[in-house]
Design goal:
Blueprint: H1 15-19, H2 27-49, E1 56-62, H3 64-67, H4 77-87, E2 92-98, H5 104-114, E3 121-125, H6 128-133, H7 137-153, E4 157-161, H8 171-178, H9 180-188, E5 192-193, H10 216-236
Helix pairs in contact: 4-10, 5-7, 7-9
Length: 245
Amino acid sequence: MSSEIKHMSPLHNLMPRLLFGGICNPRKFLRTGFTALLALGLLGSAAFAGAGTPPVKIVAFGDSLTAGAGLRAKETFPGALEAALRNDGYNVTVVNAGVSGETAPGGLARLEWTIAEGASAAILELGANDMLRGINPEVTKAALDEILARFSGHGIKVLIAGMKATPSHGPEYKAQFDAIYPELAKKYDAPLYPFFLEGVAGVPDLNQKDGLHPTGAGVARIVQGIIPMVRTMLDQMGAQAIGSE
């Protein structure tokens, strides 16, 4: 199949599928699929880098907002971010490690076999489904804490993409949930993009019909907002832009 085929999500039409998972593919299948995608990423990177320095590999680790529900591969967050960074001259590969319906505890469960071999950096985008399901913020925080600890143990630099709770769960829940990301960013001295959907959430023209997932234009807005922090992270890592020598 070509990259023009759209990624289908269990969230495509019905809200309950977002709230209660709706993922029918077993983790064994996901493990195999990610292995194949990582191999393809290596091949694509080799073509870009040629005989020079290997590309910096960034893992975009998240849920359907990362996976690109309802979008073509080039329109997804990882695809659009990689294209933008390469356009800026950075020799990078952005691996799409997003799974629709994923929660923070679910992400923790698959972390070790999802991390791309040779990955130097990651963008962590999880928590939206936890919030929508009303999962205790302490549970979400503990899972994200452990994910960050494991990334750190692998020597992988992480940019945290934060999420914010809707008012529907009440002010106490919102306060507890919203505090997760800045607290963990401080603990791990990690850069924080406060709200992954900044400038997109609640904007009809930038969201699909379900009102939850960004369109290609919405993803472009997300990339526009977050890319300065990604560039800074790459520069701090000593990543060189192509032709900068």
